[in-house]
Amino acid sequence: MRLIPSSRRSRLPGFIALMGASALVGVAAAVCAGPPISAQAAGLSVRIVGNHFVDGSGRTVRILGVNRSGSEYACMANWAIFDGPSDTASIGAMASWNIDAVRVPLNEDCWLGINGAPAALSGANYRNAIAGYVSRLHAAGMYAIVDLHWNAQGTLPADGKTGQGRKMADLDHAPAFWSSVASFFKNDHGVVFDLFNEPHDIGWDCWLNGCTTSDGTGTWQAAGMQTLLNAVRATGATNVVTLSANGWGGDIPQWINYRPHDPIGQIAAGWHVYYPETWWSEPSRWNAGVSPVLGAQVPIVVTEFGEHDCAGGWMNQFLPWADQHGLSYTAWTWDTWPNCANPVLITKYDGTPTGYGISLRDHLRGLAGFKPVASQASSGRGPAGAVTATRPPAAAPTSPRQPAASAAAIAHRRAGGAVPLPTPASILATSPARAALIGLGSILLVAAPLGLAAGLWLLRRRRRPLSAGADVPVSAEAAEHSRT
Fold first, then answer.
1. Are 15 and 81 members of one domain?
2. Both 357 and 462 in a single domain?
């Protein structure tokens, strides 16, 4: 019987072992991190012409819909990316109201994966989840507005203690955030960028150019709207950008006096109006507020508005007036927190409205001819990528834009007081499937080195030729060759 030389017969098992170990490492990395995805061009498109919006066909449209709170706080609380469902069915409930746009608040740290943001809920995982949600909104014929909602300077976490209700965007991270977001969505003109949620307690010059400011977290450098806009445009993104007015989004008449320079003229003014909280909620002041901006050929998007009395009397005045003046608007908020005075539009994610929500639902259903043409466009993962995490209603948060109806609560928010978030839930409880995948990835990461070591041991052992029943030492050169 002729023996096969050890140098030949060892190659196949060794190759199989090495390939198997490499495959384990690759699978584990994919499960734990997930490949970054790029937003793809969407069929929906919006741009500015004069003081109004047009779609890809040049037809005048308005951005009318709701905010969907949750993605600004749940990730840093380490229990989910969204608060409640983000799947196709939940978006279908929105569509039943005749909604054509959803504002999606973002968290700076979760998007960038910094400052202690939980790895499973931040970075590529967070970005892909947001992209998947945007894709599903587009498929239902809805625009998406993504805004920088929670942020913090330096190494402070953008969480419920130091991340919510900040005066302005921080220079440390916000420009990088917008460079990343704009690069991610620049091929999707169905996405609008809202540069910062509610600037407040700063001067208008700081709003435009940035400044050094101080608060309970210390002294830090704020980034101005011009810097944030420049970060967006430097990526080549030509998306529409909205810039929220100073004064918690309320001081709309001054906006035109501090308008940043946009080389492509695709910026809109953002306005926030709440009843009875804000000075501009008085109907007699509305015309004077918006006239300077609209007269300068700039569109206005009321990116947040609402009624704190759980009813719809004020809404029934504001909505027809906004329609008459061609304003776009997205109401706060499509969430099921237990206190409707927050204010919330629904009591269930099937679209069951609160007393306040009924006014918006019936008004939108009564409008015709403003919606864009729906298309099956993709900005990320499809419905299978939906993250559906729900928590008990009693644990619902109160964010800076969700004060109780009382004057004391409103004053507390105006003073920048921190509002507690829910007790973080385990990812195993909020997303068992994701937890199982991460667990599998961890096992594979441990198994991969063991498999590699076993393969190398087998390779070296089979390199030793048999001679007269005794082992023959393998030369150092041959051993080294067997490792490569």
1. no
2. no
CATH code of the domain covering residue 302: 3.20.20.80
- 391 and 474 share one domain: no
Those residues with Cβ within 8 angstroms of residue 5's Cβ, 6 or more apart along the chain or in another chain = 465
Contact by Cβ (8 Å): 241, 267: yes
pLDDT in tens, 278-315: 999 999 999 999 999 999 999 999 999 999 999 999 99
Q: How far apart are CA 464 and CA 104, in angstroms?
A: 63
Task: Report the amino acid identity of residue 28.
Answer: A
| End-to-end CA gap in the chain | 31
Question: How many domains would you assign to the chain?
Answer: 2
Range of the domain at 278: 38-430
Determine the Cα–Cα distance for residues 152 and 171; give it in Å rounded to an integer: 9
**Residues contacting residue 262 through CB under 8 Å, at least 6 positions apart:** 229, 233, 241
Residue 44: which residues within 8 A CB-CB, separation 6 or more? 55, 56, 138, 141, 142, 143, 189, 190, 372, 373, 374, 375, 377
Read off the pTM: 0.74
Question: Which tokens belong to 92?
Answer: 């279908």
